[in-house]
Write a structure and sequence with these properties.
Elements (H helix, E strand, L loop, with lengths): L10 H12 L5 H8 L3 H10 L14 H35 L1
Helix pairs in contact: 1-3, 2-3
Length: about 100
């Protein structure tokens, strides 16, 4: 059996597909059928091009809001890591002083 190769889509094609969903209000499944791609592919493109967030409940964020959310998530991740380091250091020094 011959192995099927992956179809390659141009960035313009992907952006146009996302526009059909976002700006024209067409459903993801409808756009996917009309373009001959799987609906999960359209969803991935929507996330990739910043039209929707990959996390549930984030809604439709645009431009600056999406960038701020991305920056804040990175900051929270950094702060959590620093907190864990401080917890371990405090436990270490408490053990050493007793």
């Amino acid at each position: 059996m011959a192995k099927q190769s992956r179809r390659q889509y141009t960035e313009d094609f992907k952006r146009e597909a996302v526009k059909l969903v976002e700006e024209q209000g067409r459903g993801v499944a409808e756009v996917a059928r009309s373009l001959g791609v799987h609906r999960s592919q359209i969803e991935r493109w929507r996330i990739q091009y910043g039209q929707v967030s990959s996390s549930a409940g984030a809604g439709h964020l645009k431009g600056e809001e999406a960038e701020e959310l991305k920056r804040l998530r990175a900051e929270v991740k950094q702060l959590r890591m620093e907190r864990e380091i401080l917890k371990k250091a405090a436990a270490f020094f408490a053990k050493e002083s007793s």
